[in-house]
Amino acid sequence: MALLSGGTGGARLASGLATVMAPDDLSIIANTADDEEFWGLLVCPDVDAILYRLAGVFNDATGFGVRDDTFQAQAMLGSLGEQTWFQLGDRDIGVHLLRASLLRGGMRLTEAVTRLARGFGIQVSVIPMSDDPVRTRIRTDAGELSMQEWFVGQRCEPAVRGMRLAGIDAARPAREAVAAVRSADAVIIGPSNPLLSVDPILAVLGDELDRERVTVVSPVVGGKSLKGPTSDMLRDMGEEATAFGIARHYAGIASTIVIDRVDAGSLESIRSLGVRTLLDDIVMDGVDGEKRLAASLLHALESADGS
């Protein structure tokens, strides 16, 4: 199985799947269009959120970084007059330092992430979508911003008027990502932000996907996003922030969608798009919720294959 994932809901599902699947049976392909450099260090928020969750060190209290981290390096930078709106903990910086060293030594990003995963004791494959730089740029009333400037620096406040992926024309999917989706019995699109987290992956990897083997887990429940600005962004971009809207967004790429039971009223309208629908309780409460949804999803997909 291959999972396409951002750093929030998709990363949580990745954690659940890793507990119920054999390591060799799971590959996680991560969005890298949120990446940005700070003080000469490449920071990969979605990749790192996946790594930290799989390693059991993710900071759920803050929603980013490493649990129980300290911020002495950041405090020193602030005292030297540097802007510190993007918080990097000391342990987090250790990861970025090693990645930067590996990249300067000639490793591709995919190879560097594999080295980090191995260092954390992670056995499943975590694969960046591309070794080439792709960066999400967001057009707002305050001007064009990088994803992190908008999401962290501006706290998602300027309304989104448009988006573009800088570098997408020259980017190619990582060869490990291509191999993973080609060999997968099923490809799951995690419950991540479609616009920010998944569309960049599809922009480089979409041509490799077989629609009949692709299932998307909705990031919207009862008209609200599970986490983050997904609902507001969809509306700003003229799309519906509903289970039906998610199904329509992915109708050309996914043959099946998993929606929450509270959205059962959308079944017929979604089926009219030519998309099969599975009902489940898709809100993941803690580690047990991640494992429950992962196991339920696997069972549903296996049952569908056998029918």
Give a topology summary.
Layout: E1 2-5, H1 9-20, E2 27-30, E3 36-38, E4 41-43, H2 45-55, H3 72-79, H4 90-104, H5 109-119, E5 125-128, E6 135-140, E7 143-146, H6 147-153, E8 160-166, H7 175-183, E9 187-189, H8 194-205, E10 214-217, E11 220-221, E12 224-225, H9 230-236, H10 243-250, E13 256-260, H11 267-271, E14 276-280, H12 286-306
Parallel strand pairs: 1-2, 1-9, 2-5, 9-10, 10-13, 13-14
Antiparallel strand pairs: 3-4, 6-7, 6-8, 11-12
Helix pairs in contact: 1-2, 1-12, 4-5
What do these coordinates show?
The chain has 307 residues and is of the alpha/beta class. Among the domains are: 31 residues, no CATH class; 132 residues, 3-Layer(aba) Sandwich (Rossmann fold), CATH 3.40.50. Helices cover 41% and strands 18% of the residues. The chain has 12 helices and 14 strands. It has a 7-stranded parallel beta sheet with strand order 5-2-1-9-10-13-14, with helices on both faces. α1 packs parallel to α2 and α4 crosses α5.
